[in-house]
Structures are given as C-alpha cells and as structure tokens.
Amino acid sequence: MNRFSIIAGVAMMVLPSLAEAQEVTLKMGHAAASTHIFHTGLEIFARKVDEKTDGNVKIEVYGDRQLGDDKQLLEGIQIGLIDGALVSSATLPLVLGAASFDALQQPFTVSSYEQLSAVLTSDLGDELLATLDEKNIKGVGFVDAGLRHFLSKDKPVTSLADMKGLKTRIVPIPLHKAIWETIGVNPIGMAYGEVYSALETGTIDAVEINVSSIKSESLYNAAKQVTLTGHYFWPGVIMISNAAWEKMSDADKAAVEAAGKEATTEAYALAASQDAETVAFLEANGVTINKLSDLDDLKALTASVVTTWQGKDPMIAKFTDAFAAGQ
C-alpha cells in the first residue's frame, strides 16, 4: 500500500467523525409576540436541545413574526429556506393540506391540559407528527397557547343568543368555519396580525382566541368583554425543515426528538399554570370576564361537527377515541 492510499484511508475514517461532531445552528420563528407562551415554549425546547446534544445543535428563537407569519413559515420550511418554527396546528390543514391535525381542535373533546399533553407525548402523538414527513418537515413536539375563549368588542356575551350574527374572526379553515357557522356567528377569515386593528375599527365584533394572546397582543385595549367558553385548545407544532434535519448526526436527531417530548410536557404544564394569572391580569386592565349560561347547549350544538369530522381522516377518529377513553 503506497503513502497516498494510507492518507486516503485515514481521511475516510476521520471525515465521518467530523460530520458527527458538526455544530448546527437553527433559526426558528413563530408568529406570536415575544411575550407570548409560544416564545417561552420554543425557548424551553432550545434549552433542552442544547443540553441533550452537548451544544452540537443550537437554536435561535425569533418571535414577533420576524421570520414571517404561520403561512410564510410553513412555506419557507417546506423548501428549506427557514430552518424551523413553532406553527399553530390550525394552519397546517389550510397551508399544507395536513387534515390529520384537525384532530387537535375538535370542540369540547379534551378534558384538560394534562390529558392533551399525555396524548401528544404518546405513540399517537408521534404518529401524528410523522404525517409531516411527506411534507418535507420533521415534527418534534408541541407547545400550547391555551384554551380558546370568546372576546367581544362591546356587549357582554353570556348566552348563545348573544353570539348570533356577530362578525367573528376565525382561522379560515373548513373545521373552524363549520364550528362557528353551527354556533351562529358570522365567521370572518382574517390574518392574526390584523385582529387588533379590525377590533378597533369595528370590522369585526369578536374573535375566538386564547387569553394568552389577548394579553400578549394587547387586544384588551380594543375589546373589553371575555366569555370563558374553553371550546378547544390551541396547539403549536415544533417543526424542523428536512434540509436542517439532515445536517444533524443520528445521535443529535435522537436527542432533539427527546428534547421535543420533554419540552411538550413542560410547556403544557406552564400553559395550565398561567390561565388564572392571565385572567386576573385582564380583569386588572378593565376587561369583564363572563360565563356562558348555556355552555352545555353549546357543547351539544357542536357535537355534530365532531361526528362529521371523525369520518374525514383516520387520525381524527383515533384522537377523539383516545380523549373519550380518558387517555
């Protein structure tokens, strides 16, 4: 064996080890304010990734729509222009055609943050994340913005009758359209970043939203009536582009997935702990907190939507069955 053969052989052994030790920095964005729990949740994930990969994978978190809104983030991740993001699950059916994620927002099917967290970190949660593989996206975890309620601009909403005909901002996906048309509001599809000005100008009368976003987006300055309906949760999906994913070693990939599960559990516990505190903040800033007198009627009314949607995708039936079984 000549000298050049020996050198080449040594190089072939060294190069893989160098690739395995390669440090990767991912820029990950989200569409909420930097004071929102989405930002905190993504920071929790970033910290756990750094710890579990011994610093091989580092994540920089960009809030305030710096890398784009949910649609722009999803499109950028698919083609590898954006490394990763935390994106509201509701936008995945709209932008990616990922209908399975409608499973997470069937009205009144989930009993608690704890139940949803347990299911999302189970094999069923992994199965749902795996449906993103065909979209050139690696799903690794979840962060929840919180239970959705009803924010109205002027009059208090204390019954289903009060909701009738209100111009209400929704995410314009078929599931939400079906839910809110069944309830009887006038649903209006609108970008998240336009909600504040639309409330101020009267373009909309109300918005279905979580209290964390009412606080972080200062919507309490534009609308003063919150009705606690808790109709569904608002999970965000932690995702990484395939292009960024393939830069990692196998060991780092496994560590990132483990970090995603731990971050999901921690972020859901945080979301559960913040609700009462956030409601108290809103009350201190002049918001009236109302209850719906006929909440059971609202649950009964929207049950037909759940039945219809269970037949649209196998994952939806699997999730609703798991929730009903108390898993």
Defining traits:
six-stranded mixed β-sheet; 327 residues; D-Maltodextrin-Binding Protein, domain 2; 48% helix; alpha/beta; 14 helices; five-stranded mixed β-sheet
Walk me through this protein's architecture.
The chain has helices at 3-20, 37-52, 70-78, 91-96, 113-120, 123-130, 160-163, 174-183, 195-201, 211-216, 242-245, 250-284, 295-310, 314-324; strands spanning 24-29, 57-62, 84-88, 137-144, 148-152, 167-170, 186-189, 206-210, 225-228, 235-241, 288-291. Strand 6 (167-170), helix 8 (174-183) and strand 7 (186-189) form a beta-alpha-beta unit. It is 48% helix and 18% strand. The chain has 327 residues and is α/β, with parallel strands linked by helices. The radius of gyration is 22 Å and the shape is globular. The longest helix has 35 residues, at 250-284. It has 14 helices and eleven strands. Residues 1-19 have low confidence and may be disordered. Helix 5 (113-120) packs antiparallel against helix 12 (250-284) and helix 8 packs antiparallel against helix 13 (295-310). It folds into two domains: 22-146 and 234-276, D-Maltodextrin-Binding Protein, domain 2; 148-232 and 278-303, D-Maltodextrin-Binding Protein, domain 2, CATH 3.40.190.170.
